[in-house]
Amino acid sequence: MQTLQLLISGIAQGMIYALVAFGYNITFSTSKTLNFSLGNFLMAGGVIGFVLYMTRGNPYWAAVLAVMAVGAIGGAILLKVAVEPSLRQRNAYGWILATLAVGIILRNAAEVFWSTDDFKFRSPLGDSPIRLFQVPKPDGTLSAGLGVYPQELLIIGISLAIVAGVEAFRKFTVFGKAVQAVSEDKDTASLMGIDQRFVILFSFMLSTAIACLAGVLVAPITLVSATMGTVLGVKAYSASIIGGLESGIGAVVGGLFLGVSEALTARFVSTGYKDVPGFVVLILLLLFKPSGLFGRAAIRKV
Amino acid sequence: MDATRRPLLFRLAPLLLLLPLVLPKAIDNGYYVGLLNRIMVYAILVASLDLVVGYIGDVSIGHAGLFAIGAYAVAVLTASPNLNTESTIAHFYQLPFVVALVPAVLLAAFAGFLLGFPALRSSGPYLAVITIVYGLIIYTFINEQELITNGTKGITLSTLKLGGVRLGGINYFYVVYPVLVVSMFVVHNVTHSFWGRAFEAIKYSGVAAESCGISRSYFKVAAFVLSAALAGLAGGFFAQLDAYVAPNTFAYNFSVEFLIALIFGGVRSVLGNLIGVALLVTLPDIFNRFNDYRLMVYGTLLLLVLYFMPEGVVGIGRRIWRRFRPEDHTAEFAALEKAASDVDVLSGMRQGEGPPALELQGVEMRFGGLTAVRDLSLTIPRGAVRGLIGPNGSGKSTTVNVLTGIYVQTKGRVLSFGDALDGLKTWQRARKGIARTFQNLQLFADLTVLENVMVGLHQSFKSSLFEVMFRLPRARREEREARARAYALLKFVGMEKAAFERARNLSYGQARHLEIARALALSPRLLLLDEPAAGLTAGEIEEINALIQRMKAAGVSILLIEHHMDMVMAISDEVTVLDFGKKIAEGKPGVVQADPIVVEAYLGKHPTSVVVPA
Amino acid sequence: MSALLSVKDLVVDYGKIRALKGLTLDVAEGELVAVIGSNGAGKTTLMRTISSLLRPTSGSITFESKDLIAAPPHEVVRRGIAHVPEGRRVFAQQTVRDNLVLGAFLPLRQGLKAQVEEDLTRMYGIFPRLKERQDQLAGTLSGGEQQMLAIARALVSRPKLLLLDEPSMGLAPVIIDEVFRLIEQLKSSKSTTILLVEQLAFRALEVADRAYVIEQGHIRTSGPAKAMLANPDVQRAYLGAAHAH
Fold first, then answer.
1. What ipTM does the predicted assembly reach?
2. CATH number of the domain at A2-123+147-288, please?
């Protein structure tokens, strides 16, 4: 029972990783760049959500929408200010440094304009766990049963909905197919009349909006702080790469693997080492199958 | 950059290095001298980072981890129980500081070695992620292994004592300063030698580097090992800086800040490393409460530097300097002219009788379901010029790649001068005398023309790394001789006047000539020219033809892949024609030109059966 | 008759190489014009510049008397130019049907769903094999089938001008026959104007009305296709001036 509880928490945390990993994949597949500030966008989502919901008392759903809107605008700004200028430069990896720079600016801005402390974010569905499978005990009371936090269920539900929604959009709408076309071969996509710059802009805005949403979703089960995004962002790379950098399902599998392995390691080995299995799998994969579990290895002709 | 200096400056420079030794007494302020010490230790770290980022061209965001290994190794090995009374440390070794440095550096070097392998397989963002993860793994270990590191509470070190002299506080300057000078001296020497050129060659074009006889695997891993060792060394001295180490110093942000310092100061410059670090350390000091805004300022600074001054402060400094004193290489030209006058560029290429220059026996190259080359047999006699032609997709590039070892053929054998090449890597084949030029130009863009050719001379350097690091006589002599030979090679192709131009600024025709000079630097027995005439004017093609004739006269065997028919037919002894991966014709140019099978391969079947007169 | 497409003194640099050195040609409505020449002569550079995938250094390109150079690639398509790229470049990871749908991207965005359905049916009529394989991933098709798909994909948007870049490349002779039969069919149905770039000169000259021969970025000769079949310049452009044995 305890293990099941642990698994559910691990799955919830894993879905958060999956959302951020999904964000990485979306921009990577269209622009072939990895957004090193995406974790900090998650933090921005959590912080702005906190300010709106906890400090100012706005309804949770309003905070969610506002955060996603801000995230989308932020993504557009990131693209125009950091990524596009770097891609025009001579140095092939300038965009890595540029997105890193934006990341640390975001984090410090949160510290300066908001706070350096950690805060507790109340869940809109209440902070007490829902108890399931309770059985009566000999002394008349109920057993603890399985305790699940409503926020965890919310996270799992919304994350799956988002991933499913975006994947459905990709496969079944014309615009979604256009996005796939740009990821596969952007010059030929242009020949179909598809505006690749717009597609890339759209993918950036979508990925940062999703990251911000992940921030406001995860806030109730961790603490909100200016630094909450940094390590999370790094772990989400693992999820991306484990699943394959261009795959939607891969992000979910990668995220789940990470979340669950973390929860189990924290419980049965030590909390300090909970990140290690994820890192080890990542390094092994990068050495032997860099395209990830679901990725396609590209055949390059010299 | 060029290693020549005017004799007077050269003799005075070492003396200038003694000047800073008066600083501690002159300033006589513990806080400011401490700041200087910090700048010096950090500068060594940034110089180590530069080896990977500036020279090999990979972004590393995990050097904090390598620094931490050095710092913690020294801390763990030198700490005494008296100063760490409440610690959870299981065993105190209490070794002397200097002794502890050795395992610290070795351990860091080993960590660099482990990092080198992923670096071979990944690049760009993937590698950046691996370095971040590396840093985090090391951080986690330090944080958690309380029995060794005392976890978050950190380790306190005893004040440094060498030979009975207390060297803490202000006096630590006298320890760190010499280490800084020696480290920078070593880094400068390595990066301005054939080692540094090999690193940069790998950065600009791995394939071209390999074709110059440089093993990408070896040098890339070596760069990571050297970088890590130096970072570890810096870490060791850092531990004594505050006589205290704690895990939270070595977190992810630390790596990011040093990356910023490196870019800001300017990559590939020891002076730039110092300037970048000085800024990083002193800015918080100048502005009150700066620490609160530190990361925002650095982030913005990084963006500004990336867009407006990608060459850093040092780059701007150079530009300003050039305004007042434009580049003048007259003295260097004169010296090179003199040195090159007794170099015989074509020696070593002459061959007598013997097995053919190249033999392909039944070579097949399949990629999954696609057979790019099938049952190809080809023999090029010594000293011959062979043209290889065929329509698009006929398998010419595949053949070249099989020859140079980029692809391993699925069937058949490749021999050159009687030696089987099978199993040999590209760089090994280069060392056996097979040189090539590239269809799509693979120059080392930001190296000078002279340096590009010197990369081609890589295998002529026999000095050990130690000799290079300390500029011992043999290393200096080999460098001088290589420069002279490189210059002579440039004269051979008519490019000597552009010796100090960056390769990226050359015109297309000049670039082609440079590739040939670089290929000749290998003293090749077999030279592969991959579409040397593409995009050239008629006059430039004449020049290339003349060069080919001279090389042929010197006894070099040549395989020429070309689409420019007039050129191929004029210069080749024989021509081999491929279509759909198979040989369809072979023989003297005139015969091949008129062969109806060849005509059909290129132009398709003629609708009438009238053969068009040539 | 004013030209549908008019290229004047076009100079295009590809990195450091001057790929086109002042090219002039035009295509009138309803014609099939061939541009032939050997590798590296500049044929694909010309096509990519018309499609705005490359920017010219100087010169002009006009389509229906309006400047084309300033238009970004998706705008060029909107004006009615469809490009079948060299090497076909089908979207391997999408189905045959989705590839065609992507070809109709612009009409679909304009809400012309019924017209697109009609065009898809029409394509399946011309290319029955594509209909059989409509749910297969395009990457699993044979080379010849991919070429058909790439052409169908371009035709589905009812272009005014079809740019066909080296349709024979990498295909076996029998399949090349099929492809050229199709090109003949397109020409006789007068559905669209065609600019055909080909390495196999004789094949191209057989189907074309007029032709230009490119060599090293210049136009060497031009004229009615049938006349050029007998012109020795053509063979010389490919295989060089004759050499004594």
1. 0.90
2. 1.10.3470
